[in-house]
Amino acid sequence: MSGITRRHFLTTTAGTGLAGILATGVPPVLGQQREVSYLCWNNFAPLMDKKLAEIGQRFTKDTGIKLKIDHIAAAQQAAKYASEVQSQAGHDLVEMRMHFPWLYDSQLIDLGDLVADLEKKYGKVLSSAGETARVRGTWRAVPQYHAMFVATYREDLFKKASLKIPDTWEDLYTAGKELKKMGHPVGIPISQNYDSISTAGPVLWSSGGQEVDKDGKTVRINSPQTAQMIEWYKKMFRDCMEPEVLSWDDASNNQAIQQGKAGWIHNPVSAYIVAKQMKLPTADTINHHRTPGGPAGRHETDVPRHIGIWKFSKNAEPAKEFIRYLLGKRETYDEFIMSADAFNLPVYEKLQDHPVLKTDAKYAGLKAEGVQYHCYGWPAPPSDKVQLITNSFIMPNMIAKAVTGTSTKDAMVWAENEMKKIMAG
Amino acid sequence: MTRRKITQRLAMHLLLVPFLVFALFPFYHMTLTSLKQNKELYDRTAVPLLIRQGPTLEHYTKLLWDTAFLTWTKNSLLVTVLSTFVSLVIGTVAAYALARLKFFGVASLGTGIFVTYLVPTSLLFLPLAQVVNWLGLGDSKWALVVTYPTFLVPFCTWLLMGYFRTVPKEVEECAMVDGATRIQALWRIVLPITVPGLVCAALFAFTLSWNEFIYALTFTSSSEQITASVGVTSELVRGDIYYWGSLMAGAVLSSVPIVVLYVFFLDYYVSGLTAGAIK
Amino acid sequence: MAIGGIRVAAPASRPSLRAKVGELLDREQWLGSIFVSPALVLLLLLVAYPFCMALYFSVSNAFIGRPSHFIGVRNFINLWESDAFRQTFQNAFVFCGAAVGAKLVLGVSLALLLNQQLWFKRLIRGAVLLPWVIPTALSTLGWTWMFNSLYSVVNWTGLALGIMDPPGPNWLGQKYYAMAAVIIVNIWRGLPFFAITILAGLVAIPKELYEAAEADGAGPFSRFWYVTLPLLKGVLAIVVLFSTIFTFSEFNIVFVLTHGGPINSTHLFATLARQVGLETGRIGEGAAISLYLFPVLMLVVWAQLRFVRKQAY
Q: Do C54 and B126 count as a contact with CB atoms less than 8 A apart?
C-alpha cells in the first residue's frame, strides 16, 4: 500500500476523506504518517480474507493510515502470540479467538468504549462473545463474528421416512434409530478432537449439567445431569451410530455426510459449503435445522472471534480507528459478513437475521432463534485451568469409556478426578 | 552366463521389488493425487492407483496463485542457501584446524563437536525459542539462518575432517617450504583437492536445511515468514477442510529442488552418507 | 643480495603489522584457535547455552509471559501423574525399539541384495535412497493421505487383495493402528540410511574370506553368520547408535501424521514437549519432558565414544 502524504490527502476529493475523519472525530496529526499492523488468522472462508484486504485498502484511502495485514494459520497462533508477548513487540491489532482474551488479558488494552458503541448500534453481543471477550468486567477485545455448530442433516432421507425434524436431543435418538436402519447412521464423534467436545457440550448443557461451576473452581461433572447425557450417548452409540465414531478426527463427520454415508451430523456449515463447492451429488440433499434443546434450554457451541490491541502497541488510536471502520459502519460490516458465505456470522443481537442467510435456502436453519451460544467450558470463566481441561479432552474420553463398557458412574468419577487434578494445579 | 546364474539374478531382482515398491509408491501416489480432479479424488468408488477422468493442473495453479506458496519457497531458498554457505565456511576452517593443526584442546574439541551433532533439535527447540525471542528474531526467517548452523556445522566439520585427513601432509608442506603461508596453502592447495568433500558437505547441508521442520515450525509463524515445509503442512488445512489436491501439489513442488540436486549428485549423497557413518 | 661481490644484507625493515599478523597466523596454536573459534562460539551460544536454559526451565515453573520461579524437581515428579506423559514414555520405547529393530533387519537384507551383481545398479540405489532425501514433513503428508480414514489407498489395496475386511482400519484414528502407521513411516524414511551404510560395510569385506569359507564347506547362511556379521559389527553399531538417538527424538513424522493422537497413543517426547510447552504455554513442564531425551542421548554418546571411536581424534 503506498503511503499518502498529508498534502496529497488534502488535495484529493475531500468527500470521503473528510467525512471519515469527522465521523471518527480524530483529526490526522500534522505531518505524521500513521501505520497499523494487524495479525489475522487464515480465515476458514478464504474470500473473507480477500474482503478484509479490500476494506483495508479503502481504510487507508479514507483515513491516510497505512495498514499491514499479516496472516497466520490458526494452529500457529498460540506460539506466535506467546513470542510477541515475550518480546513485547510485534503487531498492533491481533485476532483473538474464543478464550484468548483471558489468556492474554494483562497484555491487551481496554476496549470498552468501542464495544459500547457497537452494542448501541447492533444490540448486545451474544452470550459466548461476552463471556470470552469481557475478562472480569473489562472488554479486552471487540467481538466481530462467530462460526457456530449447527445440526446438518439429509433432508431427502428424512422426507423419505417421514421423520420429524429433531427439536430435542431425545427426538434425535428417535430419528437416529430409523436413519441407522436405513443405512445412514448418525455421525457424532466420540474421540479426542474438538468436534467431540462441541457436541458433548450442548448435550450436557441442555440437560442442565456442567463441567466446572461458574465460580471457576468447583468441579461439577459428577452429577445426575451428566449421567443423563452419558445415558443418551450410550443409547445413541448403540442404536444410531457406528463404532467408527470412536476414531474420527475433525474432518471425518464432514466427509461422512459429504460421501452420503451419514444421515445427521453436528458441524459448522463447512460440510455443506465444501459439498457445494465440489459439486458433490450430496450437496442438494444436505440442509440444516435449529440446534436441538433439552430440559435446561437450547445451547450450542460456537467459536467467536474478536480483535484486540496489544498494550505494547504504540499505535493504539489508529488501531481503534480501524476497528471502528471495519465494524462500526453497518454497510461495511454487512459487506464483510456477506463475503464469508454464512461461515462467519454476526455476533450482535440485532443482526442475527442477516441477509447472508437468505443467499441460500439451506441457511435458513442457521437463524437459530432462542439458541444460547457458549464456548467450551461454560459456565466456568475461561481460565488457564478450564482451558487445560478442555484441551485434555476429558469429556470425550469420559463418554468414550462409558460407551465402550465402563459404567456411567465410574466414567463420571474418573472424569471428576482428572478435572480435580487439573484444578488443583 | 549359465542358466542357473540368470535365474539366480532374476530372483535377486524379484526380491528387490517389494523394497522398491515400498520406497517409491508414496511418491507415485502423491504425484498422482496432485494431478487428479477433485471429483475423482473424492469419489470412493474410483481407483486410487490411476487417473481415469483426466488429469488437471488446477491444484498447482491454486497453490501458486491463491496461497503464499511462492513466498514460502523463496524463504526456504534464502534460509537454506545462507545457512549452507555460513556452515560450510565455519565447518571448513574448523575441520582443517581439527584435522591438521596441533593446538591446545584439539582432541576434546573434536569430540565436543561430534557430541553436539548428536544433541537432537527436539531437545533444544524450547529454550532456543526464548533465545530467539530475546535476540529480537522471533517469527523471522533470520532466526533460522542463525540457528540452522548449529546442526549443520558439526556435521560439515566432521565430514570434512575425514576428507582433509586424506590429503597427504607433504602436499601442504611442499607449498609452505616454497614460501606460502598456511592459509595460502589451505586456499590454493588443499581445498581444490578436497572439492568432492566440499560438494558433499554443501549438498548435505542444503538437504538437511531444506528438510528441517521443528525449528522452522517454532521460530516462524506468520504466512510471510514461514518456509515451504511449514507452509504446506499448516496453511493448506483450514479448520476441518483439507485441500488434499493442493496439499499433495505443495509437497511435490517443495521436493523438486532436492530431487534435482539428488539426480545430479547421487554419488555424492551416497559417499556422504557412508562417510559420515564410517570414517 | 650481492653488490660487487660483497654480500650486503637487505636493510632490516621493521616488520609491518601485516607481516606480524601473517606470522602469527602461521603458528599452529593461533591459527588453530582462530579457525575453530567461529564453530566454538556458535555451538556455545546456540547449543550449550540453550541446553543449560532447558535445565533451568525444567526446574522452574516457567510459563509464557510470566516470571518464573525455581521449584526443584517438581516438574519431573508431577509429570508421572499425567496420563499423557506415562503413555508418551511407553510410546517412545515401543516406537524406538520396533522401528530400529525393523530397520536393522530390513536394512541388512536390502544391503545384502544390493551387494549382488545387479542390472541398473545405480538406478536401484537411487530409488532406494529417495525416501531419505525428500523432506520428511512433506513425504509424511503423502502418507497422511495414504492412511486417510475414507480414501486410504492402503485400505483400498488391502480390500482389493482380500486381506482386509471392509471398510478397513482407520489407521490414524485407532490406538494401535496409529502407532503402526507412525512406525511404518519411520521405517520407510530411515531404511535407506541403514541399507546404504551397511552396504558400504559389506563392500569392504574382502571376497577371499567368502571364498575360503565356501571352500571349507560353509553354506550361504553360515557364511553370513560367521563371516559377514562379525565383520559388520562395527558398521552396525554405528548405524544403530545414530538411528537410536534420531528415532527416539523423532518429531516430524508424529507431528504431521497424527499430532500425537489418538488419545496420546503416538505422542513422543518431542511432540508432547511442544504441545505442553508451546501450545499451552507451560515452558517448565515442556522443558522437563524434552529432558527425558537426555539419558538416552548420554547412553548413545558414551557408547559411540567408548566402543566405536576407538581412534583418538
A: yes
Tell me the chain B residues in contact with residue C156 when contact means C-beta distances shorter than 8 Å.
47-48
Report pLDDT digits (tens) over A271-308: 999 888 888 888 999 999 999 999 999 999 999 999 99
For residue B107, give the nearest of C28, C51, C312 by CB distance: C312
Per CATH, the homologous superfamily of domain A150-290+392-424 is Periplasmic binding protein-like II (3.40.190.10)
* CA of B94 vs chain A CAs: smallest distance (Å): 34
Buried residues in B20-44 as b, exposed as e (16+ CB within 10 A): bebbebbbebbbbbbbbbbebbbbe
Return the SS3 of C59: coil
All partners of chain B with 3 or more CB pairs under 8 angstroms: A, C
Beta strand pairing status for A186-187 and A264-267? parallel
Residue B26 lies in a domain: no
Class of domain C82-308: mainly alpha
DSSP class of B49: T
Tell me the domain boundaries of chain A: 34-147+302-358, 150-290+392-424
Whole-complex ipTM: 0.89
Burial grade of C25 (CB within 10 A; 0-12, 13-18, 19 or more): middle
Place of cell 485441500: B243
Query: Which residue in this structure is represented by grid cell 470412493?
Result: B44
Residue C311 has pLDDT above 90, yes or no: no
Q: What CATH number is associated with residue B88?
A: 1.10.3720.10
> Which residues in chain A are contacts of C255 at CB distance < 8 A?
none
Residue count of chain C: 313
What would the CATH number be for the domain defined by A34-147+302-358? Answer: 3.40.190.10
Contact A242/A248 with Cβ under 8 angstroms?
no
Say yes or no for a CB contact (<8 Å) between A270 and B239.
yes
Q: Do C32 and B150 touch (CB under 8 A)?
A: no
Sign of CA dihedral A393, A399, A402, A405: negative
Is residue B264 in some structural domain?
yes
Tell me the per-residue pLDDT of B6-62, one tens digit each, with 9 for 90 and over.
Answer: 888 888 889 999 999 999 999 999 999 999 988 788 877 788 888 888 889 999 998
* Global pTM value: 0.85
Per CATH, A34-147+302-358 and A150-290+392-424 having the same topology is answered yes
The boundaries of the domain holding residue B135 are 61-278
Number of domains, chain B: 1
Distance CA A374, CA A128 (A): 4
Mutation for B interface: C24, C46, C108, C109, most B CBs within 10 A: C46
Contact between residue B253 and residue B63 where contact means Cβ atoms under 8 Å apart: yes
Task: Please tell me the distance in Å from A78's CA to the nearest CA on chain C.
Answer: 6
Mention every residue, 6+ apart, whose C-beta is less than 8 A from residue B76. B210, B227, B228, B229, B254
Instruction: Tell if the CB–CB gap between A270 and B240 is shorter than 8 Å.
Output: yes
- Residue A346 pairs in a beta bridge with A145
On chain C, the residues whose CB falls within 8 A of the CB of B76 are none
> What residue spans define the domains of chain C?
18-58, 82-308
Instruction: Nearest chain A residue to B44 by CA: give it.
Output: A259
Q: Does some domain include residue B28?
A: no
